[in-house]
């Protein structure tokens, strides 16, 4: 199966800037969509596959920095490359602390923007893989019975089968069978791997 196509979304109220950036990015084979405002982008939505935003700091209505914050509040995580004609250090720090990939001040070289966009798209590819992996782990965890979850908790606490059995009021052989089911259902080949899975499922086993 081929990799899903990446998309770069340009949000800038200056049509000449949008056209210039679109032309540059499409020339290297990237799929590009352009928008004059943040609401226009939101109405269009994002296609499946890796995405990133090339976002102007100054936009009509909501600023680019405020829009970045709005996206995070809405649990929309997409890498952002900021562009501006009047950047300053506090503005840059705010954007980067909020997770921006890059903050470019005009005039910038084409290669600088291309590098930033490729970095942003790769970051989204990695994030998508991690989200997909976590979804799969949650689905697998959901197949465990309540008793299997209790056995799993005991294993992760470093307890022996007989100790878990005593705590749960069952036999050691039953715990051994349930432990095997936990390992199979979560596709874990060792206790170390089981611990790694549990760490990712921190909502199930909070520290």
Please summarize what this structure is.
The chain is an alpha/beta fold and 207 residues long. The chain has nine helices and five strands.
Secondary-structure map:
Layout: E1 7-11, H1 15-26, E2 31-35, H2 38-44, E3 51-56, H3 64-73, E4 80-84, H4 89-97, E5 102-105, H5 110-142, H6 146-156, H7 161-168, H8 172-185, H9 191-200
Would you give an account of this structure?
The chain has 207 residues and is of the alpha/beta class. It has 2 domains: 7-136, 3-Layer(aba) Sandwich (Rossmann fold); 143-200, Arc Repressor Mutant, subunit A (Orthogonal Bundle), CATH 1.10.10.10. 55% of the residues lie in helices and 12% in strands. It contains 9 helices and 5 strands; from the N terminus they run βαβαβαβαβααααα. A 5-stranded parallel beta sheet has the order 2-1-3-4-5, sandwiched between helices. Helix 3 links the parallel strand 3 (51-56) and strand 4 (80-84). The model has no long low-confidence stretch (mean pLDDT 90).
Mean pLDDT: 90
Largest sheet: 5 strands, parallel
Report the total helices: 9
Radius of gyration: 24 Å
């Amino acid at each position: 199966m081929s990799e899903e196509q990446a998309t770069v979304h340009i949000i800038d109220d200056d049509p000449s800037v949008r056209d210039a950036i679109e032309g540059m990015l499409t020339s290297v084979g990237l799929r590009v969509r352009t928008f004059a405002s943040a609401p226009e982008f939101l109405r269009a939505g994002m296609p499946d596959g890796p995405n990133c935003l090339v976002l102007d700091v100054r936009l009509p209505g909501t600023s680019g920095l405020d829009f970045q914050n709005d996206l995070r509040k809405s649990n929309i995580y997409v890498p952002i490359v900021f562009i501006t004609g009047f950047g300053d250090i506090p503005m840059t720090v705010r954007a980067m602390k909020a997770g921006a990939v890059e903050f470019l001040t005009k005039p910038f070289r084409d290669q600088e923007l291309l590098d930033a966009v490729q970095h942003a798209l790769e970051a989204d590819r990695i994030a998508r893989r991690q989200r997909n992996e976590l979804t799969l782990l949650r689905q697998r965890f959901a197949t465990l019975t309540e008793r299997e979850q209790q056995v799993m908790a005991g294993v992760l606490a470093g307890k022996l089968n007989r100790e878990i059995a005593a705590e749960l009021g069952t036999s050691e052989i039953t715990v051994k069978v349930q432990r095997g089911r936990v390992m199979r259902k979560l596709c874990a080949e060792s206790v170390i791997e089981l611990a790694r899975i549990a760490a990712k499922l921190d909502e199930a086993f909070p520290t």
